[in-house]
Design brief:
Length: 189
C-alpha cells in the first residue's frame, strides 16, 4: 500500500490535556498509565480514509510555557492542526481562544483546525464529578460553540482511556485536509 500524499498533522493545546496520550492511543491502541510530558516520537504511517491512502505524519508539541519559543518551529509545513483542550479543565478550554488561536494564526494563518475535547470518560464519571463538583466541566454544546467561534472545521470529543472517538479525530483531520486540497488545489502530486 503506497501513499501518494503526505499530511502533516500537528497537535497543540495546554500541557496535560492529553495530547500525547491521544497520539500514543491512536498509534499503538494502548493507554499509557503514567503521565509522561510530551515523549512521543514523530510518527508516520500509511492510512486509508474513504478510499484514499495518505501518509499521515503526526507531530506532538509541548503545551507548557517553557516551550513557547520552540513550539512554532513544528508548525512549518503543517496541513492540519489538532487543537486539544480537556473537557474537565475550564482553563484549557479558555486558552483555546486566549493563547492557541493567536499563536496558530500568527504562525500558520491558513491551516485548518480540528478542535478536540479530551478526557471524555472523566466528564461522565460520577465519582470524579462528585469530587470536582462539576465546576470545570465543558459541555458538548460549549465545545461546538467554541468550534464556531474559532472557525474550526470540526469538533470531536474523545477519550484515550476508552479509545472512544480517537480514530475519528485523525480520520476527520485527514478528510479536512483532503477536502481543502480539492477546494484549493492539492499542493502534492
Amino acid at each position: 500500500m503506497s501513499a501518494s500524499k503526505f499530511i502533516k498533522c500537528v497537535t497543540v493545546g495546554d500541557g496535560a490535556v492529553g495530547k500525547t496520550c491521544m497520539l500514543i492511543c491512536y498509534t499503538s491502541n494502548k493507554f499509557p498509565t503514567d503521565y509522561i510530558p510530551t515523549v512521543f516520537d514523530n510518527f508516520s504511517a500509511n492510512v486509508a480514509v474513504d478510499g484514499s491512502i495518505v501518509n499521515l505524519g503526526l507531530w506532538d508539541t509541548a503545551g507548557q510555557e517553557d516551550y513557547c519559543r520552540l513550539r512554532p518551529l513544528s508548525y512549518r509545513g503543517a496541513d492540519i492542526f489538532v487543537l486539544a483542550f480537556s473537557l474537565i479543565s475550564r482553563a484549557s478550554y479558555e486558552n483555546v481562544l486566549k493563547k492557541w488561536m493567536p499563536e496558530l494564526r500568527r504562525f500558520a494563518p491558513n491551516v485548518p483546525i480540528v478542535l478536540v475535547g479530551t478526557k471524555l470518560d472523566l466528564r461522565d464519571d460520577r465519582a470524579y464529578l462528585a469530587d470536582q463538583m462539576g465546576s470545570n466541566i465543558i459541555t458538548s454544546a460549549q465545545g461546538e460553540e467554541l468550534r464556531k467561534q474559532i472557525g474550526a472545521a470540526a469538533y470531536i470529543e474523545c477519550s484515550s482511556k476508552t479509545q472512544q472517538n480517537v480514530k475519528a479525530v485523525f480520520d476527520t483531520a485527514i478528510k479536512v485536509v483532503l477536502l481543502s486540497w480539492v477546494a484549493h488545489g492539492s499542493p502534492q502530486p
